[in-house]
Please model this.
Amino acid sequence: MVQGFEDLTQEQFETLKKAISWITLLLAGADGKIEKEETAWAEKLADIRSYSLPNDLMHFYQEVGKDFQEELETLLDTLPKDNKERARILTENIKTVNPILSSWNDDLAGELYKSYKSFAKHVAKSSGGFLGMMSISKEERELIELPMLEKVVFFDEDE
Model:
């Protein structure tokens, strides 16, 4: 098991990993179309996080990156093309993270919650606007805070 995640089952860990793909496609498809730039940026962001984070999340993102592209492709092939139905399914999938994070008595759960929200913001900013960056659509704005995730309170030395 990945460092810091030893208290979780393999199934729980896989759910937490898949959440990155679900978040990517939920935000990328919020405006009705999933653009290659958005999924490519999400893949790059997962890669950057795999070596730039100063804590156990770095190891988590290394694991995410191992099959992130394949996971996205599988989801794109299997999810409905209808935007509302796809969003509904992705939202329900993301909700499966809640019981894992709430039962995991570790500051890392809070860090991962915070990381999911940050990841969503970066995906939302990856298309539109000036040179294709920094524009968030109305639909993305409604999802960017990941309202389907229950807030995880944790100790953060920086706050």
